[in-house]
Amino acid sequence: MRKPLSSAATPLTDTLSPSSIPLDQIGQTLASIYDDLVSEGVPEHLAALVRRVRQTDAEATAPHEPPPLVADGPVPRLALVVEDDPEIRALAETLLEETELDVVGCDSAEAALTVLQARGGDVALVFADVRLAGAMDGLQLARAVATLWPRARLVITSGHGIRRPDLPREAVFIAKPWRPLDVLVEAERATTDPAPPVT
């Protein structure tokens, strides 16, 4: 049986002379026989050293979690302008750029769906013409948006009359030629009105 260690031992420094053994190495050795030392009574300053070494070892072997992602700010909301006429699309984009929304223009429903698939949760407003380039028209796009991205405000425009049953219940219709104020009002509603619940 080992003799109890005396608590009146000389205070430890960073290294012990003459062999200059680092304290951490001593602590590791003590940690390996810690249970025996505790049963025999270990001086408090040695116990503290052992605890420190064990804590350091645990931190070194613990898996490191990646730091939490910190956003630089809120993700900007989007207005999606879907219009195959370049001049009208450019006019609508310029108009909506005066709002707090970021604006993305598309000439087809297929291009709009690509944007929606990537950033659908950020889209606050879809402003779409009925006649578009591509296989889908604006009414088909409107139905897809109403079903898959119901939180986006849906505004359909056309130079031709549309029967109300052809539009999703949530959609707003603005006839061409539209007035800039009407478009801005819908953009304002898209950013201030509470989004409909997702059912």
TrEMBL record:
<dbReference type="InterPro" id="IPR001789">
    <property type="entry name" value="Sig_transdc_resp-reg_receiver"/>
</dbReference>
<dbReference type="Pfam" id="PF00072">
    <property type="entry name" value="Response_reg"/>
</dbReference>
<dbReference type="InterPro" id="IPR011006">
    <property type="entry name" value="CheY-like_superfamily"/>
</dbReference>
<dbReference type="GO" id="GO:0000160">
    <property type="term" value="P:phosphorelay signal transduction system"/>
</dbReference>
<feature type="compositionally biased region" description="Polar residues">
    <location>
        <begin position="7"/>
        <end position="21"/>
    </location>
</feature>
<dbReference type="InterPro" id="IPR050595">
    <property type="entry name" value="Bact_response_regulator"/>
</dbReference>
<feature type="region of interest" description="Disordered">
    <location>
        <begin position="1"/>
        <end position="21"/>
    </location>
</feature>
<feature type="domain" description="Response regulatory">
    <location>
        <begin position="78"/>
        <end position="191"/>
    </location>
</feature>
<protein>
    <submittedName>
        <fullName>Response regulator receiver domain-containing protein</fullName>
    </submittedName>
</protein>
<keyword id="KW-0597">Phosphoprotein</keyword>
<feature type="modified residue" description="4-aspartylphosphate">
    <location>
        <position position="129"/>
    </location>
</feature>
